[in-house]
Amino acid sequence: MPWYVFALVDAAPSGAKGRGLSGPLAVRAVPGGFVVVERRADVPPAEFGSLKRHHDVVAQLATRVPAIVPVRFGTLMDEDAIEEALGERDEEIAEAFAAVRDRVQFTWRRGGPGVPRRTAGPGNGAKAGGPNSGRDYLQRAARAAKPAPPAAWRALRAKLKPLIAEERYQAATGSVPEALYHLVARDRVARYSTMAAALRHADAALAFTGPWPPFAFAPEML
Q1: DSSP-based helix, strand, coil % in the chain, nearest 5
Q2: Between 20 and 30 A from 67 (CA), which of 2, 15, 189, 211?
Q3: CA distance 190 to 207
């Protein structure tokens, strides 16, 4: 029977292993760390209950290990596939753990759903075949992959900057409002939460949640 994968961790979780979506969790050694898994015959339906349970399992695991790299919902693999996907990637896995070790995520959102941004391309940006079109395309692709927060976030970012280890911004889509993600060291969580609450109180359009596992900062390893 395949394994349903919840996360990669840098150490075996402390305490009892606990339960996954419907069965007991297991911890399997892999290059550079461990995977936390559950025996399961099929991928669970992408319904609120399953999504919430997956999130809750990862969140609980995150409190029991120094570093966690969450794995996307619905990842079902046999043991050979896991080993093949992670084999000879010790350095990459170590870098992923180092980036999130002893850190948590806070999520900010502003306003309601936005309008999807148009994708630049022929007829909507640089002219096709122009002398700089290839370079311009790569530059636009890089900006789209890691967009900069707009000016509306400037004041919030400036006040919280001393407490932020890393930041990522996600533009709004037609159904999801824009989001700003902050990676914060565990020993700065209390200070960050106090300042964030004051900022939220001063601007009714803002909402923040956390601390969470570093979902927005985890590379896709599986």
Answers
A1: 35, 25, 40
A2: 2
A3: 17
Q: Please state the pTM of the whole predicted model.
A: 0.82
Nearest to 218 by CA among 71, 57, 75: 71
Please check the confidence at residue 127 and state whether its pLDDT lies above 50.
Answer: no
Residue whose tokens read 């709004």: 172
Cα 28 from chain centroid (whole Å): 22
Look-up of token digits 């969450």: 70
- Joined tokens for residue 173: 């889509």
Other beta carbons within 10 Å of 38? 21
Give the H or E element holding residue 166: strand 166-170
pLDDT at residue 125, rounded to an integer:
37
DSSP 95-131: HHHHHHTTEEEEEEEESS--PPPPPPBTTBSSPTT-T
Amino acid letter for position 173: T
Supply φ then ψ for residue 158, to 5 degrees.
Answer: -65, -40
Q: 3-state class of 7 per DSSP? A: strand
Task: Tell how far CA 46 is from the center of its chain.
Answer: 18
Length of the chain: 222
Q: Rounded to whole angstroms, how far apart are CA atoms 110 and 119?
A: 22
